[in-house]
Design a protein that fits this description.
By secondary structure, the chain is of the alpha+beta class. It contains 9 helices and 12 strands. A hairpin with a 5-residue loop joins strand 1 (about 105-110) and strand 2.
């Protein structure tokens, strides 16, 4: 076997600056400056966060490699779809105005006993772990993040749903006093608060994660602090941020984007490169940070873990 050792001056091709980033370096430097400003805000908050001592959490070895490099935090914390704070992806500064302590989560619906629990009391009842997951936006860009959180099935066990429960309905905050997207202009007609849903069978799978941190620290507001959902095999709009209510229901929830555009954003939203969005292809995606365009994988590369959930649902539009 030939073993090749790189010389000290050699640089791997993967670290070469992509041409499009070089040609647009002025815009890139502006974004980087924004990231630096944002990172200067976070340490002050992290020092006050009562959950800070829980990070970094122990990595889960089953989810330690997403098959792609981890995307730099300077990108993922400053490039976010979070319409509560506006239509621009540069909402990190605006999101810092959202107070995340105290923060209560209501668990209700088809459960043995409804309850309201503070985020820190919830964290005391679960075991946090780090998982490196891919994230694929419906807009055909993607990233890889080391998330910290706990399996959704842990919340299911805490809630103790009854036999009528078939779905989990997630609801985000409604705070128009600090979330300009909920009050300004055209977006006031949107069906706030943001709602998403999954099946109880999906919630019981090993993959869904309720996220409380990233990059070994408490979750930034721009990424959905203090509690968000991450479903790595679905398009990103399913991964609701700023969760304040989880309701167990007998009926399928109608989600925020499904309400606004049912022909474009369905309930399931599983990633499939063969099924285009009505206005663009889903065959490839652009990696955030590197700018590289790569092929999109069925179920975002997690078919082995989740495809069995849908084997008897042939009549459903699973990839909208």
């Amino acid at each position: 076997m030939l073993i090749r050792r790189n010389r000290s001056w050699e640089i791997p091709e993967a670290r070469v600056t992509p041409e499009h980033m070089f040609l647009n370096r002025r815009s890139f430097m502006g974004a980087a400056a924004g990231a630096v400003a944002f990172s200067a805000v976070r340490p002050a908050w992290a020092a006050e966060d009562p959950s800070a001592k829980l990070y970094p959490a122990k990595p889960n070895p089953a989810f330690a490699d997403a098959g792609r490099p981890v995307t730099g935090a300077e990108y993922t914390t400053t490039f976010n779809n979070y319409y509560e704070f506006g239509s621009s992806k540069r909402i990190a500064e605006a999101a810092e105005k959202l107070p995340i302590r105290p923060w209560a989560i209501v668990i209700d619906g088809e459960v043995e006993k409804p309850l309201t629990i503070g985020i820190d009391d919830l964290l005391a009842k679960v075991t946090l772990e780090e998982r490196i997951y891919r994230h694929r936006c419906v807009e055909a860009w993607s990233m890889v993040v080391p998330w910290t959180g706990f399996p959704v099935k842990s919340l299911v066990e805490l809630a103790r749903p009854n036999s009528n429960a078939k779905f989990l309905r997630f609801e985000t905050f409604n705070k128009p006093d600090v979330a300009p997207g909920q009050t300004d202009g055209f977006f006031t007609s949107y069906p706030w608060p943001y709602v998403e849903g999954i099946t109880l069978a999906e919630a019981a799978n090993e993959m869904p994660l309720l996220v409380t941190g990233a990059y070994g620290k408490p979750l930034p507001n721009s990424m959905g602090a203090p509690l968000r959902l991450h479903l790595p095999w679905k398009y990103g709009f399913k991964s609701i941020k700023g969760i304040v209510r989880v309701s167990f229901t007998a009926e399928r929830p109608v989600s925020f984007w499904e309400t606004l555009g049912p022909a474009e954003y369905g309930f399931w939203a599983n990633v499939n490169p063969e099924v285009p969005h009505p206005r663009w292809s889903q065959a490839t995606e652009q990696e955030l940070g590197s700018g590289e365009r790569v092929p999109t994988l069925l179920y975002n590369g997690y078919a082995e873990q989740v495809a069995g959930l849908y084997k008897d649902l042939g009549s459903e539009k699973l990839f909208m």
